[in-house]
Amino acid sequence: MNTPHISAEKNSISNVVLMSGDPIRVKYIAERYLEKSVLVSNVRSMLVYTGFYKNKKVSVVGHGIGIPSCLIYVQELVDFYKVNKIIRLGTCGSVRNDINLCDKIIGLGACTDSNVNRLLFENYDFSAIADFNLVLNLVRSAKRLGLKLFLGNIFSTDLFYFYKDRKRIDLMKKRNILGIEMETAGLYGLSSVLGVRSVSICLVSDHILNKKKISISERIVGFDEIILLVLDSILLNNKYNNLNF
Ligand code: HPA
Of 21, 28, 53, 172, which is most buried with the most CB atoms under 10 A? Predict the structure, then answer.
């Protein structure tokens, strides 16, 4: 085993990684969208695949639920496998009337009830933000593919069921939180410590206000759109100076 949680050979993971909580979704992305995809690690059934999208080498990695699980994989991917671009494809809940099931949200920033970023930042408040280049490329690809995106603050909670009550939902609404999920604030915080780029894009899978959830078929369609968007975006080159999107 090469790291405690990933058994892949040293050079078998690309520097560009797509991450998702559910290993079954990771398998789906690799088998459906990548060419020559190979399973390179399956420790604890947290699947890791490497393959090619239009000749670009890319890996897809499961991260489980919540910041602690996600950050174990992020740290090992960066330290041992030299990963430097991470795009999380997740789901989130919405607390707003204008954000509906199946909408797609990029977390420009991520608030949190987790203590992780204080641990990493000598107890100061850390501004957990996405990498500008990765955001820019996602926005350019979305424009090309005709997909609508919401961009703004999301909230990463340690407690899945904590934000279901009215008082907290109202607070999230008032503070313009676009979606609630469980990993992004930690991902952005650790990315800054490790000096790598990261971004999260989430499909709205449930509406916390009206308790509606997306159907299985809506989830498949929504994720297919997000996967194609993300794969298209990683083909774009990184140039801050071309803002003509
Ligand atoms: N809360 C936290 N995480 C989530 C949710 C939610 O409502 N939906 C999808 N991930």
Answer: 172
